[in-house]
Amino acid sequence: MTDPHGRTTRRRASDQGQAAPDDDDQDLDLVERSLKASGCLELHYQVQECMVDHKDWRKCREPVQAFRECIQAHQNRQSSDPSTQSTHGPISGAT
Which residues fall in a compositionally biased region of kind Polar residues (predicted)? Predict the structure, then answer.
């Protein structure tokens, strides 16, 4: 299976006999859906394309750094958003 950019992607859950997601992203695997939700999917594709083209991560430092910064920004947003944090405290009686 290929994505819209012509790259080979993993098989969908529906192709493996599992229920398909009910959203428009059913062609994306779990990792791709997570990256899309973070806003970093296109940067992920840029890193992949660079690695395919150059086969040397050292030549892909700029797209890797941009992707890293995007993921870090997403994680920072998640950690500062109270709705994404656990409301459970430590377990009572734990020693």
Answer: 73-95
pTM: 0.59
Domain that holds residue 31: 25-80
Q: Which of 71, 67, 49, 55 is nearest to 5 (CA)?
A: 49
51 closest CA partner among 38, 64, 41: 64
In-domain check, residue 44: yes
The count of domains in the chain is 1
pLDDT in tens, 76-95: 999 987 776 554 444 444 44
Phi/psi of residue 2, each to 5°?
-120, 155
